Amino acid sequence: MRTLPTRVLIVDDEPLAVERMTRLCAAIPGVVIAGTASDGAQALTQCGALSPDVVLLDISMPEIDGMAVARALARNAQSRIAIVFVTAFDSFAIEAFDLAAVDYLLKPVSPERLGLAIERARVRIDDASPAPAITDHAREFWVPYRSELIRVSADDIERVDAERDYMRLHLGERSYLIHMTISALEARLDPARFIRLHRSVIVRRDRIARLAHDRVGAWHAELVDGTSVRIGRTYLSAAKALAGR
Question: Which of 3, 8, 48, 232 would be a feasible disulfide site paired with 198, CB 3.0-4.6 Å?
């Protein structure tokens, strides 16, 4: 349980946004404003000088943007700073989770949502283990849900179906849409855990119960939940390799 104050650095090039975030942070017990910055270069300087616990980081800023700041902090192996992105755009969420950010907040941020992000940051800070490593394969995704973005663990995804320019991520009885191509999503998923069976379907390997073909020779994968997925010719050899064929 954290007993020391949580020191927060607010980074935004809009003075009114900084003022509002300062008021919201002041209302959260145990939070202390370590400082503010109005651009990326100043943010990096302040991180080095003030050693904040959490950076509330806007993305769209002149010259050095928030993503560049996050990448610079991620390269510092000694840095334990928890990054919470605060932005008006949801289009940067894919890159944000690659940088192991704690949370991704959409403006205007509600007090409740900011409080949850700070709590998540405190858990990360108090965790004795290092921050999640940045790898080629995604550990999690941020997906739009109502008026916010929520975390989806890659381990919980059971199946992916392409729906035009969106991918539907199936997690048990729940599903979420994410805006990206199936090829881009396939590249972000661990091939040791996921397999593409069709031009519009990716399946977690352990969800496949059996492979079968019909009278005309078309192959299907039967999933553990009873769903049948047709296997495209391009992906048939990889599917058969699951059975050692």
Answer: 232
